């Protein structure tokens, strides 16, 4: 199966075809701050539900570079 490379015209076409898409150009939105907030929210919800949780995000950030 051949993989097709996308051009700028494809991006513009998709933008016009899907005007309700919040991120039509698929720019990266998963910054460390956003992922950290999501991770913390998952831990809170798990605790509220009485479910065991492993907070890998926090553990990964405790390791020195």
UniProtKB/TrEMBL annotation:
<protein>
    <submittedName>
        <fullName>Uncharacterized protein</fullName>
    </submittedName>
</protein>
<dbReference type="InterPro" id="IPR036514">
    <property type="entry name" value="SGNH_hydro_sf"/>
</dbReference>
